[in-house]
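Ticket #4471: structure export looks truncated?
Reporter: QA, pipeline team
Priority: medium

Steps to reproduce: submit the single chain below to the structure queue and open the exported record.
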Amino acid sequence: MLQSAKEYRASSRTISIYSSLGGARVSLNPIDQSPIFPLVKMYVCGLTPQDHAHLGHGLVVMRFDIVRRYMLYRRLNVLFIQNVTDIDDKIIAKVVALKVDPLAMTRQLTDEFYASAKKLHALPVDKLTKVTEFLPQIISFIQTLIDRGFAYVTPEGNVYFDVSKKDDYGKLSNQNTTMLYDSVRKELDKEKRSPLDFALWKRDESTSLSSPSPWGVGRPGWHIECSSMIHETLGDRIDIHGGGVDLKFPHHENEIAQSEAYSGVPLANIWMHNGLLNIEGQKMSKSLNNFVRLDEAIERYGITPLRFVIARHHYRSGIDLTDKLFKENLNSLLEFHRLFEKVEASKATVTRETFDPDDEQVIEEFETAMDNDFNSPEALVVLEKARAKLQQRLESGVGIEMIARKAKLICELGKILGLFFDSLDTVEREVLKVAGHLSEGGALTPSQVRELVDQRTEARKSKDFVRSDELRKKLLTHGIDVLDAKAGSSWRAG
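Actual output as written to the record:
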């Protein structure tokens, strides 16, 4: 899909992205100035595999997949790196409690997560970095910070970053260090020079995840891991650093401090933070009993409905995942796939030479939306308007070949948003599953729905309106509404 999409056009606009550092829109001007397919170095914070991945992890995957797909469409050669924090306090606590091999546990949970990401049609990561594979480099990075006077070793063998040596500390989260100090001064660790100082190395001989170092056996702190792995895989300066807004402080703030102390140059030109997920108006958490595992969400909501709902929201906005939200979107999703199936869009050929002014306008409006900080909701509205126009033309008897070609264009652009990869049958099954979950009767299969709709059609033909009403009500108990038209009856999510 992306290869054919690249043939569409080369927009003269630049992509404008909201950077959390500075709080303003900036143009994406890659560090690599190659005239053809310039390289964009991108790092997005990934998984800490101490439990099964939840839907919030999936949200990050889907949102940055849209960002990445659009940059590829715009002829940018994206090098996408993501990390796995497989040494962490929570992981250690978990393996001690369960008495399991930490590497086996983290490997299993990581594989499970990326299997789910693949089901969601997310592009594979170009390189996955694991803390356990970078310990010598992390130790070397810490030693350089000590040598340059930005870090200090305590008598107990811990290493801390000295925040006082960075005058601009707090610039990402826009926090004043004096105020930060006042908020945490009661928590002063006797080893620290300041309560704001953060750990680069923790002395710890209690776990198999510990390693020897110049300061004693121990393990790295959370923040230093990302800085070191970025340095090793992408260099001192990258184009885009991404992650959830919950990581802005302290994680990303500390990354900036230690990376810039190490290299003397800004870590990232653009900082992107995605909004977080609520479930029915509440923050997702195990204590509220609304914790949704990613694999369970895929089973419950379906792949395509999930991605459609995610694309409906801007990546920087929060999402309140509610039953109502799915109800509002299922039928639009169905209408896209039914159009594609009806005109056999998958068999159509779309090239730059076949475009007419209407096609050019759709592409222009789609790109304008996405160039504006990857505004997927506006881009999706562009596709919905184009679909509605095609449906009108189809009803008026316009040539099916032309409609199929235009539908194929909509489908190809939709794939940039992570949509329209699955067949109509698959999408109908997923829609019926969600509709059944939201209703009292449970889910039906597409064949069961068609059978009931056909029975109702026969009842109406024979003027058995009692039976017809009974069948309509039965379908409604499964979340299905019947639409009657001259061409026949059809169904939609009710």
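Status: closed, not a bug. The export was complete when the record was re-opened. Leaving a note from the reviewer for reference: Residues 1-6 have pLDDT under 50 and may be disordered.
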